[in-house]
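Query structure, 97 tokens:
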């Protein structure tokens, strides 16, 4: 079973953002610094980006909201390739572009 991960852009004083990655298990384990950052973010109504369970060609994790590009291959009568570019979204229990 894959680990459920999230990413949150948390605004600091001065207008800069910290990109914080966390797992659900971080709220159980004694990692007070993660909880201290993320809980106020969530209480303010913010929604973190979900990890799609995939990595890009550079082994960087892909999250909801990321812009990706690639090629879709379909095999009906012959193999056809179509370029695609779009934002990763989570809809009806699945990640889509």
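Result returned for the query:
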């Amino acid at each position: 079973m894959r680990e459920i991960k999230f990413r949150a852009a948390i605004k600091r004083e001065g207008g800069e953002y910290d990109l914080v990655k966390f797992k659900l298990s971080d709220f159980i384990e004694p990692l007070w610094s993660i909880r201290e950052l993320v809980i106020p973010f969530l209480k303010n109504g913010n929604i973190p980006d979900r990890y799609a369970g995939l990595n890009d060609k550079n082994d960087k994790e892909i999250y909801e909201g990321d812009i990706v590009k690639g090629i879709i291959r379909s095999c009906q009568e012959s193999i056809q390739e179509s370029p695609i570019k779009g934002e990763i979204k989570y809809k009806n229990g699945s990640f889509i572009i």
